[in-house]
Amino acid sequence: MTADLLTVLWKDSRGLFRVQGSRSRALLTILVPVIMIGIVLPLQMGEDWLTTAWPLMASIVIPLITVGTSIPEAFAGERERHTLPTLLASRLPDRAILFGKWALGVGYGWLMTLATLLVSAAVVNIVYWDGQIAFYRADMALAHVVISLLFAGFVASLGVLISLRASTAQGAQQALISALLIPLMVLQIGPMLLLSVIPNGRDILSQITSLNFTHVALITAGVLLLLNAGVLLAAMARFKRARLILS
Amino acid sequence: MSTTAIRTENLTRDFATVRALDGLSIDVPSGQIFGFLGPNGAGKTTTINLLLGLLEPSEGRAEVMGFDTRTEAHQVRERVGALLEHTGLYEQMSAEDNLEFYGRVWRMPSSERQARIRELLAHMGVWDRRKERVGKWSKGMKQKLALARALFHRPALVFLDEPTAGLDVMAASAVREDLEALAEREGMTVFLTTHNMAEAERLCSRVAVIRQGQLVALGRPDELRARTGGPRVEIVGRGFDEHALALLRARPEVAQVEAHNAHLTIDMRQEADTAPLIGLLVSAGVQVEEVRRGKASLEEVFVTLMEEER
Questions:
Q1: What is the value of ipTM here, to two decimals?
Q2: What domains are defined for chain B?
């Protein structure tokens, strides 16, 4: 299984730095957020960048963009280019195909996020050098590592699930963006609903806002873990060779 | 290894209200190129998908290399190669990487993969172009590469779904030559779907003909020609006028006469001596230059079978 998974990873990594077949578009899509989050924001914030929760933005935005642009290719791209039937007719097991594609998305998104966080830390140190190396607090660093991994996993799981159904990579990408907007809308509307619908909503909201960084990080990680498991299970259930060959 | 590469019993597949394959029962012996012939939409691709275990039969069963396609599909796919309706090549990747990927899929050791890539690409005459993106290649070259990919891991059985469809005459001929040479050299069983009768006649030791999902004929190409089309006499000469043709049509052993420029084709009802017919033509003033005896081509047999079903 591992060897088969690595084979799928090897093949898909060859087309990783392409968005709809274009290398330059892929580079532009990735470089803009990496420069913004890895260079511009740390330049503006200085050492505050390393001590506040702002870098969590990198753990959300970078996987969103890197995984969100690459994962729709997973199955919809293969279907669009008529390579899927040959892949399905090979000896590769279902799980190796599914998890090979998923793992590439996760690995790509996660490593790009960690690289961005390291670049931003380097920028702060170079520009605001005060004689000693400054870095993220240990609990924050751990939160960035875990949350970026789980968020990349969630986007990849959702992307794979959508890609299994979509007829084109572009269609899969649009559907993925729409699906990812739902949790953002919930975060936006949730507090308002809490205040207006639930009688003691204000109390609940104040309790939520009084949570410290560790609590927020743990809750976020837990929610992402559950979402990951649920969506990945749905993708596993959706992966049926007969269904894919007829789609 | 089983001496029967493929065995189907009443293999049937429905798509909603449409019966794509209807009670197919065939045996394909190992080591043969088996032609599976039929017009577009006859059920050829559905049959391949069923045999590869990619679709489940609605009724009946199939065994490939001794494995049940419904319950042991993975074992089937472990042992076969396939060139399906589309080439399935990754056009952004090089020819070498395309083969490398499928070599890894079949878990061939690195040194064996490299040697096999060189062997197949050199055989195709494109070793020097191995680093080029496949997307830049002509349709014929892509098809040859896809054929090489299907045979890459030396499978005991290979499914080829219309491998020359859409190719020009030269490219199709080159693919056929490659297929013939590679199949003979590697001693594999080939399940070849096609609607090109000349291709089937040249390559296949046995053929099955299907129409609307039903088997209408099965046997060696010469058997089908003998069963469906009678003996034939072809004459090259001059002076094939209506009088001469009418004399021929009046003969009891003659089924049909057709003249086209300097060529005359006589379809016979049964084997018969041609000398009286030639004598008749000469007496009617025809100048005979050449006489050939033969049988209807597989294409004519195919057309007859399709028309019979209507």
A1: 0.84
A2: 4-219 (3.40.50.300), 230-309 (3.30.70.100)
